[in-house]
Amino acid sequence: MDNEFLKLVKLNKTFGNGSQKVTAVNDIDLDVREGELVTLLGPSGCGKTTTLRMIAGFQTPTSGHVYIDRAEMENIPPNKRPTSMVFQNYALFPHMSVRQNISYGLEIRHLSKSEINERVDKTMESIGLTGLGDRQPRELSGGQQQRVSLARAMILEPKVLLFDEPLSNLDAKLKVSTRLEIRRIQQRVGITSVYVTHDQEEAMTISDRIVVMKNGVIQQVASPVEIYSHPRNRFVAGFIGKANFMRGNITEINGDSMMVKTLSKVVKAPYWNKDLKVGQDVIIVVRPESIVVHEADEDSEGLLDGKVIHAVYFGSQIIYEIELKDKSVMNVEISDPQDNIKFQDGSDVKISLKYKSLHVLPFEEKVDNE
Amino acid sequence: MHKSKKETLSEIKRIAREPFLLVSIIVIFYLLIAFVIFPIFQVLKTSVSVDGHLSFANFTQVLTKSYYIRPLINSLVLGIVTATIGTFFGFVFAYAITRTPMKGKRAFRLIATFPMVSPPFVVALACILLFGRAGIFSGFIGNIYGLTGLVIVEVIAYTPTAFLALVGILQAIDPALEEAASDCGASRTKVFKTIILPLSTPGVVSAWLLVFIQSLADFGNPIILSGDFSVLSVQAYLQITGMYDIARGSTLAIMLLVPTVLAFYIQRYLLSKKSYVTLTGKPTSATIKNLEWYIKTPIYFFCIFFAAVVVLFYGMVVWGSFQKLWGVDSTFTLNNYIDMWASGKDYIKDSLIVALIVTPITGVLSIFIAYLSARKEFIGKNLMEISAMLTFAVPGTVVGIGYILAFNSKSFFMPVSLTGTAFIIITLLIFRNLPVGIRNGIAALNQIDPSIEEASIDLGASSSTTFRRVTLPMITPALFSSLANSFVKSMTAISAIIFVVSGKWNLITVAILGYVDNSQYAQAAAMSLLLVGIVVIALGLIRLVTSKMGQGMNYSNLEGEN
Amino acid sequence: MKKLFTAIIIASMLTITPCFSQGTNEGESKKKTLNMYTALDSEEAKYYLDAFEKETGIEVNEVRMSAGEVAARIEAERNNPGASIWFGGSNTDHISAASKGLLEPYKPNTSFELIDILHAPDYEWSGFYTGIIGFCTNTNYLKEHNLEAPTSWADLLKPEFEGEIEMAYPYTSGTAYTTFGTLIELYGLDGALDWWKKFDKNIHQYTKSGTACIARAGLGECAVGIGFSHDILTKGIQNGYPLVMTFPEEGSGYEVGGISLIKGGKETEEAKIFFDWVFTVEAQNLFVKYNRIPVNPDATVAEGAIKLTDINLVNYDAIALGEAKEANVKAWRDTIGK
User: Fold this and answer.
1) Does pLDDT of B17 surpass 70?
2) Which of B431, B532, C105, C193 has fewest C-beta within 10 Å?
């Protein structure tokens, strides 16, 4: 098996010139394995769509290379590339029926009528469009349009399937079911895919690996679990899921754990990143669900004093904003709140941090996504 | 946009890989240079050369003779007066259509825009029939031969232009804004002054400039009605056809060209600036409230008045066409039609042949240029756009003179002389009608999400296949409206055409002008009506085809909420 | 859609191709053709040309323009004329064109001798009819204002006619230039211009074409028009307009209707056949309908038509006036400013 089915090498893209010059994509290197679904995730303007369009051939890189199945793509126009794209707004041909839309690419390739029909039927069945062939695109629901778009791309059996925020026009419920379906189909067919989104939840649920991008630069490439539990930097920690940040200084490293002195207390944390050294300024990433809230009168080691400034009840969970002594505010999520007493606004509490869930990063100034 | 060498190189490579595209671009550049830029350049060259040397003697002569300066001043005065009144009328009409609950809007709209489909000079003809000394309202407005008469006919002829430009602007102003303003306590007048007027100002100015351009370039009306109030377009024509003085004729033409092109670019600049109108999001459900009677009454009265005037003018042409000898013997007769048919059927045939050739070519070419301009990146794209749009601003008189100068003998661009052929008429009409078609096409293309075309390319279609199978079907309505425009303009053109008609190929408008010249107003009326009839029938047919093809083809709403 | 697209393009190509061919090259059918510029009215020209076609089988493609326009067109097309013969228009225009070397000398075969005023010394043009400058006045206007029709150039200066007289620009119309030429013959150039400065006050408007003022006077758009006798009769009085025709007693000018071969014309043979035909009795008899005075002594003269001998004529030097046309017109424009 080829290890690097899709390979991006030192890919750059700049727009404009002089003072107007904007670097959309900055020296990107990425390897995607065959059959893998990799998501490009980041806020708008991070360069993820530009990267996708360079893979598809709609944009010419300022420098760098795109290889698909070891073939250099530079001189290959988009219509000759072994890629197919599912567009954000589906880009269905409004003057063609569903069937005509799906068979379009096959007709371009001059396949025989019978083969086209056979493949279209098969694809429509596998994607759940059977019976809709004669409909016009405007007669379909958003979800159906989305599936036509997927069918139209997949029927060509491209080497790489590209998704450009395909779910952004669907409502919340449909989003969830459709992304599961996309993932199922992708895994069944085993098609190499690159998926662009700005929705971290979507990225988490669908991807084999996630590429977090910011300002045209890759921040981290890792599996969803890895990226959530061990974000490489403060941006990734804040962008994927929610995070509280506590500033501190390492006072002691002891085997697999270390002691970090924060403004309010010394916190014990796992020692993952072996680059960290005693005396270094660090940030502790504390996920809201990794905090336990205790009664104010409880007294045991490692508890921090705090005060509830705001409590919101969600049914399945409660979210507290708790102010610590040093005036920093921690967001806390408590699942299954029936087990807990609901603390009122203003009440004094104590909190503890779940040791295993803590993640320590070298110190960084606050970043703009917080 | 700046590109690295690699990008430019790879773009060139990409275009080179699509031979159809490459060849098209080259062919279009040749056509635009040969048939748009070269003729205008020839006029310019002729105006600044004496005996083959560069010299501004023509200009110094022209600018020191009162009989050359007066037409310049007259043209500008006429343009300013017509533009001001025409824009005002157009605004009131557009306001009535978009902002009042007036009944019969469709009929009013039809009547108000009718002068656009008739040859320009028909209004002038009607004016003589109505207000001339032998007319029914003789003496009603004094001497019609001069500024007064010209302003009346040009206002009727060009108010539709202002109206159409303004109706779009006013429509785009969300009624919710007015509701918001009156909700804040603004009176009706205050709402108009603080909301409608400021938001429509760029539109008003651009409508004014459009009418100004048309008035300046008008030839058909002044040649009939100008009397002693000589204007540039007619004077340039007389200079060439009467004095055989091409040099000074070209000089006058350049003097006509400068203000029109200037006005055109100011207008384009205004439109290109971001208007506030587009900032408003989706149209809201706000509706037009019933207006107070003291606002409605004058507006309604005005609309009825203007519509009545248009009906009166054209009705007069109908009535006149059935009179035995206009002004002397008003016996009902069909003889004018019989005579007109006998002596004019060749003109009609030629006009139809020319229009039927010009129409499809203009349609296809304009859509194609629009496509290149809206969807493709290539070197010289701006130049292509500018030169393609150029003939829109250039008065017909200048184009006509340019064509006789450019194509009378062999040149680098054209290996044979075109004088006297139908080809010169056809090319002239094609390149004069091109800009409107291109603008229609670009507007239609801008409504289509480019990702639909990208999807086609992504699925393996080449750029030409994509154009044919995806883009073209979606812009069919725009194509047909270009066809309609091109047909109407080919049938009714006069100002440029009059320089290039010949014995073998003669056109109906020129024949009508000949009748008017001989005061054979009844025959002129009969032939004008026939011409208007042909145009209306053709428009009806085109509309029928478009609506059949366009059934439920409202694509622009399909794309996502993006 | 693809087929439709291709079909449109092919159809356009097919229709456009024949348009490249100029009239002269369309000789596939054996029918001979002659391309002509004519300054006669379309209707009148057609009347003569139909007769010619019937007699000779030569098909004539005519373009109607004013004499000035024809001259301009011939000059513009001197490298590649679009026609071979110029039929009609005052001989002054032909003379002016001849002086620029645009015409091909040809002495027509006639059954009679053309007198000197009827041809150029070397036959670059010949005259096939004559006409006299006259005034046409709206009789209703005269009655209403209790006036007499003008019978002299001096009458035209009367304040009663202020803003009531129309004629063409001397630089766009042969008729108007002949009028101007007549005044030059009478008073000299300076005298003529002095006269005209006063006359200009009485002008309602100048027209482009020389005959437009006749119907306009008939319609009452103006009171008096100045034109050729045959035009006044044909387009005015015989059409039923309330007009009366008068002539200036100081002396009037006359025109000789010119015909000439265009230098470089491609259908020389056909052009010469037409040239000769115009002077035959049969052709000249046709002039009766349009009140033109024939030059062939054997031809019938229209009833009521005026002959050169009936009127006090100035000694009109068409050749000198034709050659001086540009200078005279410039002087006129500089003085009158129009």
Assistant:
1) no
2) C105
- Give A309-318 pLDDT, tens digit per residue: 888 887 788 8
Mutation site, B6, B22, B466, B558, interface A, largest A CB count within 10 A: B558
Name the residue with tokens 């000074």.
Answer: B248
Same domain, C126 and C272: yes
C168 and C54: one domain?
no
CA distance A168 to A40: 15
User: Of C9, C42, C72, which has the smallest distance from its Cβ to B364's Cβ?
Assistant: C9
The number of folded domains in chain B is: 2
The pLDDT of residue B79 is above 80: yes
Q: Is the minimum CB–CB distance between B132 and chain C shorter than 8 Å?
A: yes
Distance CA A60, CA A50 (A): 10
- Same structural domain for residues C93 and C115? yes
Task: Write out the residue range of the structural domain in which residue C54 sits.
Answer: 2-130+257-305
Q: Band of the pLDDT at C331, cuts 50, 70, 90?
A: very high
Is residue C93 domain-resident? yes
Task: Look up the CATH number of the domain holding residue C20.
Answer: 3.40.190.10
Contacts of C239 in chain B (CB under 8 A): 325, 328
Type of residue numbered B343: S
Residue B329 lies in a domain: no
**Are β-strands A6-15 and A63-68 bridged in parallel, bridged antiparallel, or unpaired?**
antiparallel
Closest CA–CA distance from residue A17 to any residue of chain B (Å): 6
Provide the CATH number for the domain around residue B27: 1.10.3720.10
Contact yes or no for B451 and A153 at CB 8 A: no
Residue pair B206/B165 in contact (Cβ under 8 Å)? The answer is yes
Shared-domain flag, residues B455 and B482: yes
B326 inside domain: no
Domains held by chain C: number: 2
- Tell me what the mean pLDDT of segment B365-384 comes to: 84
Distance from CA of B229 to the nearest CA of C (A): 9
Chain C contacts in chain B segment 346-365 (CB below 8 A): 353, 356-357, 360-361, 364
The whole-angstrom distance between B392's CA and the closest CA on chain A is 32
- Does position C271 have pLDDT exceeding 70, yes or no? yes
pLDDT, one tens digit per residue, over A311-363 is 888 778 888 999 988 788 889 988 876 655 677 888 888 888 888 888 999 98
Please judge whether A79 and B460 are an interchain contact, meaning their C-beta atoms are less than 8 angstroms apart: yes
pTM, 2 dp: 0.76
Do residues C209 and C171 both lie within one domain? yes
> Is B74 in the same domain as B179?
yes
- Please say if the pLDDT value at position C15 is more than 60: no
Tell me the C-alpha distance between A35 and B477, whole Å.
Answer: 44
Contact residues on chain B for A165, CB-CB shorter than 8 A: none
Does residue C27 lie within any of the structural domains?
Answer: yes
Q: Give DSSP secondary structure letters for C3-49.
A: HHHHHHHHHHHHHHHHHHS-GGG--SSS--EEEEEE-S-HHHHHHHH
Does residue C310 lie in a domain region?
no
Cα A146–A149–A151 angle (5° rounding)? 110
Asked if the model's pLDDT at residue B409 lies above 80, the reply is: no
Q: Are residues C232 and C263 in the same domain?
A: no
Give the range of the structural domain holding residue B306, as residue numbers without chain letter.
Answer: 56-278+285-320
Whether the CB of B511 is below 8 Å from some CB of chain C: the reply is yes
- The whole-angstrom separation of Cα B527 and Cα B513 is 10
**Assigned domain for C218 exists:** yes
B250 and B307 in a common domain = yes
Task: Name the residue facing B457 among A74, A78, A142 (closest C-beta).
Answer: A78
Q: Are residues C238 and C264 in the same domain?
A: no
| Same domain (yes/no): B45, B64 | no
Question: What are the DSSP calls for A154-182, one per residue?
Answer: HTT--SEEEEESTTTTS-HHHHHHHHHHH
Minimal Cα–Cα distance from C69 to chain B, Å?
Answer: 4
Residue B506 lies in a domain: yes
Nearest by CB to B460, from A90, A95, A109: name it: A109
Report the residue of B69, B133, B341, B504 to disrupt the C interface, i.e. the one with the largest count of C CBs within 10 Å.
B504
Indicate if ipTM > 0.90. Answer: no
Alpha-carbon distance values, C267 to A23, A132, A177, C55, C123 (Å): 72, 71, 85, 18, 18
